[in-house]
Every structure is written in structure tokens, then in C-alpha cells.
From TrEMBL:
<dbReference type="InterPro" id="IPR044974">
    <property type="entry name" value="Disease_R_plants"/>
</dbReference>
<dbReference type="InterPro" id="IPR042197">
    <property type="entry name" value="Apaf_helical"/>
</dbReference>
<dbReference type="InterPro" id="IPR035897">
    <property type="entry name" value="Toll_tir_struct_dom_sf"/>
</dbReference>
<dbReference type="InterPro" id="IPR036390">
    <property type="entry name" value="WH_DNA-bd_sf"/>
</dbReference>
<dbReference type="Pfam" id="PF23282">
    <property type="entry name" value="WHD_ROQ1"/>
</dbReference>
<dbReference type="GO" id="GO:0007165">
    <property type="term" value="P:signal transduction"/>
</dbReference>
<dbReference type="InterPro" id="IPR000157">
    <property type="entry name" value="TIR_dom"/>
</dbReference>
<feature type="region of interest" description="Disordered">
    <location>
        <begin position="1"/>
        <end position="35"/>
    </location>
</feature>
<keyword id="KW-0677">Repeat</keyword>
<dbReference type="GO" id="GO:0006952">
    <property type="term" value="P:defense response"/>
</dbReference>
<dbReference type="GO" id="GO:0043531">
    <property type="term" value="F:ADP binding"/>
</dbReference>
<keyword id="KW-0520">NAD</keyword>
<dbReference type="Pfam" id="PF01582">
    <property type="entry name" value="TIR"/>
</dbReference>
<keyword id="KW-0433">Leucine-rich repeat</keyword>
<dbReference type="InterPro" id="IPR058192">
    <property type="entry name" value="WHD_ROQ1-like"/>
</dbReference>
<protein>
    <recommendedName>
        <fullName>TIR domain-containing protein</fullName>
    </recommendedName>
</protein>
<dbReference type="Pfam" id="PF00931">
    <property type="entry name" value="NB-ARC"/>
</dbReference>
Length: 592
């Protein structure tokens, strides 16, 4: 084994006959099950490259911080017989650190560990992979060029093709193609070593990767700040009547690290609370997806009130919006379209799980990339759609893409929706309209009662097609353009009469439906957020308001007051959530 450890008594967990851990040693660096938290970090490294100059120092620092870290003893015997113990140690750790050095790829042990890292991450999102590029070009690692090319040439002579491909895939797993230069540029613009308050605005087309870049920068620099907040989908939030107050409340909650702060009566009170509670900290704040409705001073107050060292990253599709932020103090950074080379790499990652197209697919891949126009979201979705398909299917989809190439991104993305099975389409529309931010298990209960078959397979299909994501908290995520495309499909069910659509999520349309006692058998889901209406402005909802909604299966009524007998009014209801205007949640979840 190529790992070494400065502590000679460090041992691997003992194995039972079935490969599971039978006991743990007293040494604090021994492996234990992930839920117990007794073992936190596993270090994967090539001993001759980094043991003396880097890895031992890292290990000592982690130990001083009381972070329990597993690192192999340099005297550990090499051989396949120790692999089950190493695999157990990896599985039972939470954070997997891969120190990628010049000769890392020459070691089959390092590569096996890396594959195990990826396997654990896919099985349990709580596992975190942290790559460290030590004296090596990340491009050589990602593309298997330079010393990594030589290493794999040797492996191809000794090992079967599947094993070698698994190792290659592990080196490409979960990486963000084409954003390294953006991360460096945005970080430079932030001038982290300077005093004062700095704002950087990222602008570009929808789906170009602004949010991805902002989050990557956030993850990289957040530890340099006292407190941080990533405020997503601001454009959508501000479409709600109480959007500004909700935004202020979320920011204060993030910075103060408290979920419950009491109510904020108006945006002026919110600004004062931000000044009193947030401005005392050196903060990093991401304002994602703002449009012309967003006014920095109206939401957060004067930028000058924030502590020295505070940094803002703001993303928008509209450059003019950013020019008005903070009295023209916002530095502008344009996120341009991907180059053809990077576009090909990103597309191939999703279409072939490789960095290059296989023989016979080069021209088809280039044709699709030319239609994509350098939009990462489109490349991911179409690549995922074509993964594993035969060449005739590729040619058929290319014809379709050419027909819609002059239309908007939503029309191009809709091709991925059209090929879904009917039940999978319904699941996608549910997520787009009202399940973003919902825990996966909760939605599964609802869909299960609808007799949908192979639910996990359908959800995985959407994930594999890059149409949805599951966050680290096991909640649904969706790109805003994918969300908008899904909601537009529902709107087109009936443009003029919203109460004849399958799903209603707009608060004003929901209010009109209920107050005017509208409805139809087509309505399956109703999201009614009335918290923006004053206490006396909304009359209590009674039985007669819902008589025309016999097929309702999902009802969310926030800020609503109910009065009367509702017995047997909702025979098909499977989800009900209600919250009084200024009170606690009355009903969280009901499965009938």
C-alpha cells in the first residue's frame, strides 16, 4: 500500500467473515460507522510523493483540530488481503480527501480508493470528496495527460478495460467542466485581501452557468468570512407580494444561524434588522438571479453599512440591473459561452461518461455542440438524454434539435421532456410546480398513493437526464430554466382559464380561484400563499370555496384561515399543509 502514517500504532478495523467491521481499535484514527461520527476523514495519497512534505503536516493539523483522521501506517503490509479493511475504513468515514500528486495514478491502491470514494458518494450524499491537486496540473488529472497518461498506458497493459475505465471515470467524477478560469477571475475581482465592501456582478444568458460559478466560488472562499448566506432564485421570490420581506428574513436567519426570528412587518423593519444584526459581521452574501424588480438598497440598505471585508456576488441575466447596484459600485463580470473544446468535453461527460466521443460519434457530437451555442445546461441535458442510445436515435434527435435551434432555450430543453414516459412527465411537472425544496421521501409518499410504478427508477431517470438534482439535504433541486419550461407546459394546458389547469402555484391565480369559487376536475394541485395579505384582507375559506375541486390531491394554504366543516370535501387529497397568517403551522402532513 502506498500510504504512510506518522503514527505507528494506527490500525485498520477488524473484519468479520462477511467483510463488515467486527470491532474498532482504541486509536482515535481507526474507522467506525459513518453515523457514529467517530471517524471523519480518510486520506488517500501516494506516499513517496507527499508523505514527508505535505500529508503528515495535514494529518497533524487535522488532529490538532480534533478531526479524527484515518491514514495508513507506512509499515502496513501491502496486498489484496487488506483491501476489505481499507474499504470499510472509507465507507465509515464522512470526508474523503484525495491528494492528487504526480505519481498518484501509478498506484492501483490509490485508484481503487478513489473509485470507492465515488461509490460511497453515489450511495450516500453525506460522503464528501475533497480533491487536492498537489504539484500537478488539474488538466493532466482530468484528461489523463502528462504523467497521468503514462500511468494509464501502463495500467492498460496489466488490467482489464473495465477496471481501467472505472479508474478514469473516478478521476472525472463530479468535477465542474469549464469553470476553473471563471472561479479564478471572479475571486480576483473580489479582492479578498483588501478592506471595504466589494460587489461583483455575474451576467450572461440563462443556463450559461452563473449560479454554478457563484456556488463554486462560495464553496472555495466561504471559510474566510464570519458568516455566509447564499440566497437563491431571488427573481422568483420577488414575484411574490411578500418576496422582499421573505428575502430579508432568510438572510438574517442565515447570518444569525437561527430559523425562528419572529415576524418582519415591512421591508423598512427588515432593512433595520439587517443593519443591526448583519452589519456587525464580515459576511459573504450571494444574491442569485436578480432582475429589474430587485433594488439592493430597498432590500439590504446602503452597502456602506456592512463590515469591512464583506463581499457580495450577484448574478443576473440583465447587465443593466447590475450597473445600478450600490450606486454603480458593482464590478461586472460577463460569463460568456463555452468554447467549442470545453463544450465538447462537457457534452461528452454526460453523453459518454468520457472526455471525448468514441469513434463514429465525432461528427454527431460536433453538430449538437454547434446547436447548443455554448450553453452548459443544454449540453448537460441533451448529453444525458443521448447517453447509451444507438446512433439512429442520435441522428433522429439531431434532426429535432435543428428544427428548434432558432427558438428559445426552453423549446430546446423540452425535447428531453417529450421522450419521458407519461408518469415520469407528471413527476417532473409536480417538481417544477411545487416540489422544489421538498424532501424526496415526502413526495414519494404522495406519488406512491397515486399508484405510480418504479418511483425511484423514474426519479433517477430525471437525475440522469440532468432535469433535476437531489441536494445534500435530500431535497429536490431544479435549474430555473428547467423549472420555467415545466411551468410553461402547465400554463399551456389552458392559457386563458388557470382554474382549468392541472396545477396552480401563482398566489394571485390561487386567490382568484378561491374567492370566486372557480375550479374544475383538471386541478390536481393548488399552492396558495396568502401571507402577503393583511390579517383582515382575506376572508376565511369555507367549504363552498373548494366544491369545484373534487380531484385535488395537493393543497398548500399559507396564511389562510379555514372556517366550517370540511368533512369528505377532499376525497383524493394526499398532502395538506396550512399555516395561519402569523401563527404556527396547524397541519403539516396528512396521508389518507
Amino acid at each position: 500500500k502506498d500510504h504512510q502514517n506518522s503514527a505507528p500504532n494506527n490500525k485498520l478495523p477488524q473484519q468479520s467473515n462477511d467483510g463488515t467491521s467486527a470491532s474498532t481499535v482504541e486509536n482515535p484514527r481507526s474507522a467506525s460507522s459513518l453515523p457514529t461520527g467517530e471517524h471523519e476523514v480518510f486520506l488517500s495519497f501516494r506516499g513517496p510523493d507527499t508523505r514527508q512534505v505535505f500529508t503528515n503536516t495535514l494529518f497533524i493539523l487535522l488532529r490538532r483540530l480534533s478531526i479524527r483522521t484515518f491514514m495508513d501506517d507506512e509499515k502496513l503490509e501491502k496486498g489484496d488481503e487488506i483491501w476489505p479493511s481499507l474499504a470499510t475504513a472509507i465507507r465509515q468515514s464522512k470526508i474523503h480527501v484525495a491528494i492528487l500528486s504526480e505519481n498518484y495514478a501509478y498506484s492501483k491502491w490509490c485508484l481503487r480508493e478513489l473509485v470507492k470514494f465515488v461509490e460511497c458518494r453515489k450511495q450516500d450524499k453525506r460522503h464528501i470528496i475533497l480533491p487536492i491537486f498537489y504539484m500537478v496540473d488539474p488538466g493532466d488529472v482530468r484528461h489523463q495527460t502528462g504523467p497521468y497518461q503514462s500511468a494509464f498506458q501502463q495500467h492498460e497493459k496489466k488490467f482489464d478495460s473495465k477496471t481501467v475505465q472505472d479508474w478514469r471515470d473516478a478521476l472525472n467524477e463530479d468535477r465542474l467542466v469549464g469553470i476553473d478560469d471563471h472561479i479564478r477571475a471572479v475571486t480576483d475581482e473580489l479582492s479578498l485581501d483588501s478592506e471595504g465592501v466589494t460587489m461583483v456582478g455575474l451576467h450572461g444568458l440563462g443556463g450559461i452557468g452563473k449560479t454554478t460559478i457563484a456556488r463554486a466560488v462560495y464553496n472555495q472562499i466561504s471559510t474566510s468570512f464570519d458568516r455566509c448566506s447564499f440566497l437563491e432564485n431571488i427573481r422568483e421570490m420577488q414575484e411574490q407580494k411578500n418576496g422582499t420581506i421573505d428575502l430579508q428574513h432568510k438572510l438574517i436567519s442565515n447570518i444569525m444561524r437561527k430559523d425562528s426570528l419572529g415576524s418582519i412587518d415591512n421591508d423598512v423593519e427588515g432593512k433595520n434588522l439587517i443593519k443591526d444584526r448583519v452589519s456587525m459581521f464580515k459576511v459573504l452574501i450571494i444574491l442569485d438571479d436578480v432582475d429589474e424588480k430587485f433594488k439592493f438598497e430597498d432590500v439590504l440598505g446602503n452597502p456602506g453599512q456592512f463590515a469591512s471585508g464583506t463581499r457580495f456576488i450577484i448574478t443576473s441575466r440583465n447587465e443593466k440591473v447590475l450597473r445600478t447596484v450600490g450606486e454603480n459600485q458593482c464590478k461586472l463580470y460577463e460569463v460568456g459561452q463555452m468554447s467549442p473544446r470545453i463544450s465538447l468535453e462537457l457534452f461528452c461527460k454526460h453523453a459518454f461518461k468520457k472526455t471525448r466521443p468514441p469513434p463514429g460519434y465525432e461528427t454527431l457530437s460536433q453538430d449538437i455542440i454547434s446547436i447548443a451555442g455554448g450553453l452548459p445546461l443544454f449540453l448537460e441535458v441533451v448529453g444525458s438524454l443521448l447517453y447509451g442510445e444507438e446512433k439512429p436515435i442520435w441522428e433522429e434527435k439531431l434532426v429535432q434539435l435543428r428544427k428548434v435551434s432558432l427558438k428559445g432555450v426552453a423549446e430546446r430543453l423540452k425535447i428531453s421532456y417529450d421522450v419521458l414516459e407519461a408518469e415520469t412527465q407528471q413527476i417532473f411537472l409536480d417538481i417544477a410546480c411545487f416540489c422544489i425544496g421538498m424532501e424526496k421521501e415526502i413526495a414519494i409518499y404522495m406519488w406512491s398513493d397515486l399508484k405510480y410504478l418504479s418511483l425511484l427508477s423514474r426519479i433517477n431517470s430525471l437525475i440522469q437526464r440532468s432535469m433535476i438534482k437531489i441536494g445534500y439535504d435530500n431535497k429536490f433541486q431544479m435549474h430555473d430554466q428547467m423549472r420555467d419550461m415545466g411551468r410553461e407546459i402547465v400554463r399551456e394546458e389552458n392559457i386563458e382559464q388557470p382554474w382549468k389547469r392541472s396545477r396552480i402555484w401563482d398566489p394571485e391565480e390561487a386567490l382568484d380561484l378561491l374567492q370566486n369559487k372557480r375550479g374544475s376536475k383538471q386541478v390536481k394541485a393548488l399552492c396558495a400563499n396568502f401571507t402577503w395579505i393583511p390579517d383582515l384582507g382575506l376572508k376565511p375559506l369555507k367549504r363552498q370555496h373548494f366544491l369545484k375541486l373534487p380531484e385535488l390531491r395537493y393543497l398548500e394554504a399559507l396564511g389562510a384561515r379555514f372556517n366550517g366543516d370540511f368533512g369528505n370535501i377532499f376525497p383524493n387529497l394526499r398532502w395538506l399543509r396550512s399555516k395561519a397568517h402569523r401563527g404556527m403551522i396547524i397541519i403539516r402532513l396528512i396521508f389518507i
